[in-house]
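Notes continue from the previous slide.

Worked example: a multi-chain complex. Inputs as given:
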Amino acid sequence: MTGSESCIISLRGITKYYNGEAVLRGINLDIHDKEFITLLGPSGCGKTTTLRIIGGFVTPDEGDVYFNGKRVNDVPPYKRPVNTVFQKYALFPHLNVYDNIAFGPRLRKMPESEISRRVKEMLELVNLRGFERRSVNLLSGGQQQRVAIARALINDPKVLLLDEPLGALDLKLRKDMQVELKRIQQQMSITFIYVTHDQEEALSMSDTVVVMDMGEIQQIGTPEEIYNEPVNAFVADFIGESNILDGIMVDDLDVVMFGRHFKCLDKGFAKNEPVDVVVRPEDIDIVSVEEGMLSGVVTNVTFKGLHYEIIIDIEGFKWMVQTTDYWPVAAVVGIKIDPDAIHVMKKSKYSGAFGDYSSFSDEHEKLSEPDAKPEQPPAEEEIVD
Amino acid sequence: MNKSSIGARLAAAPYLVWSVLFVVAPLLMVVYYAFTDDSGNFTFLNFAQLGSYSDVFVRSIWFSLIATVVCLVLAYPVAYLIAMRHERTQRVLVMLIMLPMWMNFLLRTYSWMAILEDTGVINSILSKLGLSPVHMINTPGAVILGMVYNYLPYMILPIYSVLAKLERSMIEAAQDLGANRWQVFTRIILPHSMPGIASGLTMVFVPSVSTFYISQKLGGGKFDLIGDTIERQFQTSYNYHLGAAISFVLMVLILVCMAALNKFAADDEGGLLI
């Protein structure tokens, strides 16, 4: 009743209310041994609450939590075989680095000689050799983070919970720590449950990504699945850039957008079913009007280093295209989309909430055209859109 | 401080004048009187007389120690309970703790006389209930009660303020690492509240040890404390030199106590206010 053999933690129908408002609605999730699983979503989606339920700091109002098939709803945090790296590290300010890390083993009455050896080992693991006697108050954010990880891992948890652990670090340090966390997870060969709102972080570190929104799980899958085959407009929009269009699935492998037939690889929809279509900006080729499947006008070009981000207005829908070729503003161009670049999704409550890049381009037009008549309100443009 | 502008110096001037007039000068006068005789000659004679007051010193310190410990035992749970409430409730409760302090000190002590007297409030209730009366006024217990009652808020407030700053995530982190409730208390909450306890101890002990009046009213004059003795030297015997010498020794005693306390708190935190 609690999932497969290798399943170390199972959540079944978890619901949680705060002040009468549901922050989690019927969460079902299986977490496997030695897996790096990431709960990803915008703030307020319920990912931290889910983590705190696993840690034992929050009791679900409905549903059950199983560890290795045993129901643990009422087991207090200190009796659970998991350890947590808290968002702001929560190091004990009255203890030095050594005593912080030794906190867990001392509670379990481990002999001091053994503790000393283990602390050393942990400091080595997190690259803080020789930091034993330092005050934690004088460490940098990255160093505090490492102490927090060592303090959790010294207890040999089966599962490590990480609540946005890199949120307070700067970009460069965050990248380094991502690599390091992944290394630590593989070296210790334990399960990491990682909470973040940073999709890039989730994609680059995880074995499994759980995308959440409004207290519900939207999709569970590998990073590739989540990126290439989002189940709805929310996932498509939240993970990476995407053009989300209205389409009609006239038949298997045949979707109609803008009154034109496009070949695709999707099937299994009802005949003439309205659908959402995702086309990633990097999968679109800009070609001449004659060669193009659709044609429109370039309204904005931004140099991004690796590529140009080009906004093309096609019959009022503003597409984002990422390409290494430069096209000037006002150029009339065609676009070409290969069948495997088209991903068709069922309509959902998110349909229509995310679409084209018109707000993006409007903003840039105003900024990049200083000689446009300033008195004139931009109402015309909005009507056109 | 090394290169402060003229403006900054001018702004500091009133405080400088204030401290010279009302802190430094009185201190120097105490020292001067303590080490001179009536004709203004340098002498240690004032201190030589202190031997006969050793019982007063011992009693003062002993009573104040008991009062301080009682305050700590009473104040800690109160401070903890307040700190665990919602912020708005906390403000109300802190107000209630401070409320008695807005009333005059003498008045509060007088009311305790009325409560504790042989024919006072407590004993009349006891006799109405048919119980035999209890003698409470003019006992060491009454004096210590007076100290505890008057100085309890000074213990509650500093402990409350450090506990209120304790982050919830510290407690969760400790639980997460395997600490049960008792271990969370002894290993996280108690060490964290040490600075508050240390300032509470000072803020209760110092006024208790130098207090006068409480023992005169609640102790019936049977338990002379240092404060009463000093007061008598200045008000009745007009022996400023002996009074100053007692004050001087008391000051040194308090300084030693504070230094010891600060060291004890600094072991955990690293520096302390008071």
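Summary box: The mean pLDDT of chain A is 88. The longest strand of chain A covers residues 7-18.
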